[in-house]
Amino acid sequence: DGGITQSPKYLFRKEGQNVTLSCEQNLNHDAMYWYRQDPGQGLRLIYYSQIVNDFQKGDIAEGYSVSREKKESFPLTVTSAQKNPTAFYLCASSSAGNTNEKLFFGSGTQLSVL
Amino acid sequence: GENVEQHPSTLSVQEGDSAVIKCTYSDSASNYFPWYKQELGKGPQLIIDIRSNVGEKKDQRIAVTLNKTAKHFSLHITETQPEDSAVYFCAANDYKLSFGAGTTVTVRA
Question: For residue range B47-65, what is the model confidence (pLDDT) as tens digits?
Answer without folding.
Answer: 999 999 989 999 999 999 9
